[in-house]
Every structure is written in structure tokens, then in C-alpha cells.
Amino acid sequence: MRLENITVNLRPRQPWEAVDLGCAMVRRDYGRIILLWACTVLPLWVLVCMLLHAAPVWIPLVVWWLKPLYDRVPLFFLSRAAFGERPGFAETMKQWPRLWLKNCLPALLWRRLSFIRSFALPAQMLEGLSGGAANQRIKTLAMDGGGSGLSLSYVFSKIELAAWIGLMAGTYDLLPEAAQPEWSGLSAALDIESSIPRAFLWWGAACHMLIVTLIEPFYVGAGFALYLNCRTRIEGWDVELAFRRMAARLTSGSAALVIALLALMAASSPLHAADPKLAQADTNPELRKMLGELEGNIKKARLGSEVKSDPAKTVEKVLKEPEFEIHKIKSKKWVPDFKSEKKSSAEMPSLGFLEIIGKGLFWLLLIGLTSWLVYYLVRNRHLFISRSASRAPVRAPKVLMGMNITRESLPDDIVAAARAAWATGDGKEALSLLYRGSLSWLVNRRRVPISDSDTEEDCLMQVIQAGEKPEAEYFRQLTGAWVQVAYALLPVSDAEMGALCDQWPFIEKGGAA
């Protein structure tokens, strides 16, 4: 990095000016930054979606938590572009693993909740610091720009939240009715799983990813500009750059001056010989004497001026100029005064009961939060149980409520067989085929823990707790129709039977249960 190559006009700026500069830097190369973002971040998001496909409600939280990784590639590009070197696609992709792996754990663990993340990121990534050196460097920079970095994070978090909610609200009417949540059930029971369809959760996660993609590069650019402004104010980058440019100009000027002096020296001897007055002085003794006295007086004057000038005084006078004034920053740090506290505590009445009450409230709050967390995890345990775990060997029943539910006892196309039985007027047989087929699929494919002694109601409860809402809703309607026909001996209508056949959900890639 050469300071002479910087393309940004370095000067001390107000924080809002620096943020505006960072956003302008991002706008200048927004297309390239978005392309690099898509090539580096989207594969990670695809992996997150695959891992959390059973619980999409957690995807926005995981995407938000991994933000420190996304910021590194845009920062790498902006830092190079600021010094006139826009890295190409191949170079950036070559640096991608190193950028993500460097200080990865601190960024995702104990530094994740830092309120000056974008402001501190350049100190960690561009200066190559880690551990205590990085903490000390960030602390030093934060003395000047920490407040601005905090405000920047606050504003951008609010912008991102507002944009996310606005996008979801603006596109809510475009969603199909089946994907829209039941707000009344959500407000009544806070049951996210049953009140909010999975399609809506996926749509919310997609909106969040889109908003993060559009806004996060500006957050990185604004933090990088605050970092540059902070170093300009503290380390005088603008002054250093001005001196370097001045030195470059003087170097070129002094070279020209040396060339001119050499030319004059080369031309002095013929001029001296050609000058008639000098030639006369060489031959006239009186004129030679006058010139000697004049030369002696000049040497005395030069010697007197050198004696009068004192280097120490000259240096001291120069150092008193405003340009060499040493600036100091005064900061206040609270240091506990234990001696005075002991004296004051001895004079004040005992407040030990407040400490006991405070500890009691703390432990009550902690126990309450823990109990709520355990209750929530137990109630929504199906969200955290992976499908692979559910495929553990389970002893599936073969006969339920006197009905054979083995795959061999059922036709290949259960729906077609049920329609045929219904067409012949045997409604009980038609519903029996659907009911046995659904139980066979749920027990053998979905591994729903249904036992031999379960009744229709027990089976329905097990299916609902399994967490697949479309299947549970269909099975609820089918169970109602089956109980009506089998026990109450009341027939179902053609429309109801047709809906049960048309909405048959137990199909996997064209195959029946």
C-alpha cells in the first residue's frame, strides 16, 4: 500500500462526511461488489438452508450471525480500489479462503456483538493484527471514531430492519392464501409452528437475505471510510501525503538546478577570458589589490553571520512554531477510590437487605428464563430433531385397530383403488383404503411413533406432533370421515370424498404409499 496512490481526497472530515464518502465508494463499484458477494456468500446461504430446511424460522438468525464473514470480501475490494488497484475476479476468489479464515472464530464468537464491527474490521483485516495487539489498536482508534462507529451500526441496523419489514409487508398480498399465517392463532397461543406456514417462513428468510445483500456493502464501505478518516485525523495522513508530494517536486527541481549550475560552471572560463575588465585586473596591480580587499571583506561578513547564528536557538525557535505543536488528548477514566468508599460505607446505614433482594430477584429471573427455555425446547422439540435421527430403527406396527397397514396389503395406486370402490358404492372400503394407506405411509416413511394400541384419536395426535402441517390437516379430515363412516354409519358426500382423493399428500415422486 503506497499512500501516494490513494484515489480518495484525504482530509479531516466530519463523521457524516466520511460515511457519505464510504457510500460513494461502494456506489462507484457496486456491480463488481455484488458479483463478488454472490459468488462468495450465496453458496454459504444455500448450505445454511439445506441444514435448516426442517426449521426455516432459524435461518434469518444464522444469516445475521454470519455477517462478519460476508463483510471481508467487499472490504478487500474497497481497500484495494481506494489505492488505485481494483482486484480482478480471479484474484479475489484466490484470496477468499484466507479472508474468511483469518480471525474467523473471534469474529463469530466474542467479537460478534461488537457495536463498532465495520469500523474495527479494517484494523483486523488490513493491518494484520490479532489478539491483544488488535484489541489495543481498536481501542486506540475507538478513542477518536468509536462513537461514530457505534452510531453507524445503530443506523444501519434500523435501516435493515425497516427495509426487511417493508419488503415483507409490500409483498404480503402476492403470497398465496395457503402461505399466509393465521395471525389470530399466533396472537392467541404464540404457536409459531401451527400459526405460521413454512412457506411464509421461507419467504421471510429470502426477503432477509435480499435486504442484507443490498445494504450490507454500504455498511462495510461506511465503516472503512470512518477508519480512513480516523487515521487521517490521528496520524496526519493528509500532512504526510502533502510532504511526500512536496518532496517529489523538490527532488525534481533540485536536479534541474544542479544541471543548470554545471552548465554555468562549464561556461564560466571562456566568459572570464572574454571579459576585458577581468583581463585588465589580471594585468593591473592596483585593481588586483582592490579586488583582494573586497574579497576579504566579504569573507569577514560571512564569518560574522555564521558566528552570530546559534543552531540550538534556531532549532528552539523553529520548534515553537504552531506547525510543530504537540497535540494532546485528555480523557477521563474512572478509578475506584476504595478508601473513600470504605469511609462512606461505614457512615451510611446498612443496605444489606437490598443486596439480598437483588440476588433473589436475579435468581428468580434466571430460573424463570431457564424454565421458559426448557418448556419452549420441549414443546418445539420436533424442530430440532433432524430427519436422519427420525430414521432410527423404529418398530412399526403392522396392524392398527384391526386393520392391516403393511405395504403388501395395499394396492399400488391407493387413490385409484379408492375411487373405484367409491364408484361401486362401497364408501367404507374406499375410506378404509385411504385411511390404511395414510397410516402405512406415516408409520413406515415418516416414522411417526404410532403404537399397536393407539386409537384413531391417538394416531391423529401423534401426526400433529410430528410437525408436518399439510399432512396433519389432511389426516385430521380423513380421520373425521373415517370415524363417521365406520362408527356412526353416516356416509360422506361425493364432494368430500373427491376432495380427499384430490388432496392425497402421501405421494413421493409419483409413487404411492
UniProtKB/TrEMBL annotation:
Q: Where is the signal peptide?
A: none
Please provide the record's keywords in A-Z order.
Answer: Membrane, Transmembrane, Transmembrane helix
Under InterPro entries, the record lists:
TgpA-like_C (IPR025403)
Coiled-coil region(s) at which residues?
Answer: none
Could you list the residue ranges that cross the membrane? Answer: 34-66, 200-227, 247-267, 360-378
Q: Which residues form the Protein-glutamine gamma-glutamyltransferase-like C-terminal domain?
A: 434-504
Question: What is this protein identified as?
Answer: Protein-glutamine gamma-glutamyltransferase-like C-terminal domain-containing protein
Q: Which organism is it from?
A: Prosthecobacter vanneervenii
